[in-house]
Amino acid sequence: MLYLSFIIKLVMIAGIFIKILLLINQVTLVVTKKIWILGFIIVAILLSFFFSISKVSGTSMEPNIKNGTMAIFFKNSFFGQNFNRGNIVLYQKPDGSDYIGRIVALPKESIRFDKGNFYINNNVQKYKVEEEYLAPDSKTYDNTEDGNSLDWISVGEYKYLILPDKRNGKFNIENQLINKSNIRGDVLTHG
């Protein structure tokens, strides 16, 4: 279903470009093959700059995104967009490998883990984060001896805390604080 809506949007974009080309060429009733081909080439070029398709490998985002699922990403490289809590993103680790995960904490926030629960201090209030998208029985633990953060951990000015939806143990939170520049794109659709 998600692919169908995406394909419909692509066809609409192609139609808009073809109408523009028709106006430029002042063709009223006859649509030539060249105009159609040129329209689709322009759409393909634009899509390659703004979108990326990637196959999800692994089970870290289950139950929401299954292993082998194709995902369409809106590339971040041109717009430097800000991301929201809950966004699913494609990001790059320092070793150059790509991962998919969910943004759970934003820049300039502080985080803390206690007994499998996740807390945020956004400099206005402190609150427990309800993560309804998590796999059943998933808990979030820091990579400390007891799995709890005793102190608040600062996310940083240009970083996001990105975690998988399927959490089967402790995380080294420092490794999950991802620079904004390493976020390659926002997931638009998957299925």
Automatic annotation (TrEMBL):
Q: Enumerate the Gene Ontology biological process terms.
A: signal peptide processing
What is the topology of this protein in the membrane according to its UniProt annotation?
A: Single-pass type II membrane protein
In terms of Pfam families, this protein maps to: Peptidase_S26
Instruction: Kindly indicate whether the keyword Protease belongs to this entry.
Output: yes
Q: What is its EC number?
A: 3.4.21.89
Q: Which reaction does it catalyse?
A: Cleavage of hydrophobic, N-terminal signal or leader sequences from secreted and periplasmic proteins
**Entry keyword annotation includes Transmembrane:** yes
Q: Which UniProt keywords are given for this protein, alphabetically ordered?
A: Hydrolase, Membrane, Protease, Transmembrane, Transmembrane helix
What sort of enzyme, by top EC class, is this?
Answer: hydrolase
Where is the protein localized? Membrane
Q: Which GO terms describe its cellular component?
A: membrane
- Sequence ranges assigned to domain Peptidase S26 in this UniProt record: 35-168
Under the heading SUPFAM superfamilies, the entry gives: LexA/Signal peptidase (SSF51306)
The record, for InterPro entries, names: LexA/Signal_pep-like_sf, Pept_S26A_signal_pept_1, Peptidase_S26
List where the protein spans the membrane: 6-24, 36-54
Recorded GO terms, molecular function? serine-type endopeptidase activity; signal peptidase activity
Q: Which residues form a coiled coil?
A: none
In the record, the note on similarity to other proteins reads: Belongs to the peptidase S26 family.
**UniProt-recorded name of the protein:** Signal peptidase I
Task: State the organism of origin.
Answer: Candidatus Daviesbacteria bacterium RIFCSPHIGHO2_02_FULL_39_12
